[in-house]
Design a protein that fits this description.
The chain is α+β, with helices and mostly antiparallel strands. It is built from 15 helices and 20 strands. Strands 5-11-10-9-6-7-8-12 form an 8-stranded mixed beta sheet. It has a 4-stranded mixed beta sheet with strand order 17-14-13-20, with no helix packed on it.
Amino acid sequence: RLLCLSRNLTFDRAWDTILRLDGELSDRAITANQPLSDFVRQLPELAHYGTVPHHTQQAVDLIQQEIQRVVFELPLGFQQLIFHPMGVGETSSSPISGPIDRLLIVSPFVSDDALKRLGKLGRRNVLISRPESLAPLQPDALGQFDQLFQLSPGADPEDDDTDADSEVSELAPLVGLHAKLYVADAGKITRIWTGSANATQAAFFSNVEFLVEMVGPKATFGIDTLLAEPKDNEVNLRSLLEPFRPPAEPEPVLVDEWVELAEAVQRQVLTWQLRAVVSPLDDSDQYRLELSGQDQRTINIPPDIQVSCYPLNNPNLAVPLSNPVTPVITFEPMTCVALTSFIAFELCSQGGKRRLGSFVMNVPVEGMPENRRQQILRSLLSDKNQVLRLLMFLLADTKADARELAQAMGIAGATMIAVDGRSSSDTAHLPQFPLFEALIKSLNRNPAQLDRINSLVKDLRQFPEDETMLPDNFEEIWEPI
């Protein structure tokens, strides 16, 4: 089964498209599947630092080999399927090409250059997008389309009655447009492309995207059929739309030259393959963190951009990057607890007058102190009282239980029922919480929950005996469990 989605892997409740293709594994190679197989094969190269775990690589290899031999069932009424990977290998041309009489575009994000290029392919074209995406477009881009649509209020309901704390319901209304769809009429044939690509130049010539093209009869799948007026109370695509009327003057474009420069720097940094090495400073309990690019690649920073980087929890150690960037960036001194693999980058206009953006990278680190985990625990859990609090949250069954515990934390005078059944004087201000019963309940209903407890216990046992952080009498009930 192949799912080709315009939807991201999020819980957003936008209008999207999903194409589902089912098929059977055969004993022969299917030529039409080769682009899909090649795309899957190249995906591990896009992973962080270009590597994936061995078992993941094995799964990818199996999938890409078998996909070559899958006979996919054509969606009802269609005559042909064509797979279009974009942004990998040598693919650089737009898949939306060939003879086109009329073009329909559905895209949440659009750009002037892409719409002018696509609009020239047909006549009497139709564009459906978000009003905030349509408003900044230039007249010559909008002039390529005879009809402009946006979602009507009925298709984009308000959320005033939605409980913010409730789980997202399967029946919750869809809000906002996120679908990507291209429909081209040519003679008696209609071609439909759906997938991840927006109607922007970046999507077609820079990003990694994927589209699936389906070919079928115009009478069944053509633009006029897709936009047919609804009959009676019928709900179809046209019933979800209303015309968009461009403003008298185009709104200013949000993405300006500054932001483009900042994004160019960010792309360079992301390809730098950064790594970090930790080393102790002489005669102290502090450390040095050295950041470098794996392949010693230099980054050229535009003169109008100022870039600094720092360990995420240590902004006071920020280092401005020179142009070109030095091979090794050093942060010191750092405590064991402050050491981190998360490196933050701040981008500003020269002189720091305008903040242009920021991002964080999680880089591989070598040389972390062996006792760092215990030291972090010691800094976070200063006494047995806090350990009990942590145990309570780890044993909470649901988010609601955790919220109740958090609220109860503020109740003055509440007491903790210790593991031996007596109230403990050093656990004042904690709600009544039967630790033993909670552990037994987890053992019965959710044993995997105890793995987190076991990991914490192992770490706390590493502390010196006179500094033990485990609650009194805890070992007596934990060992049998």
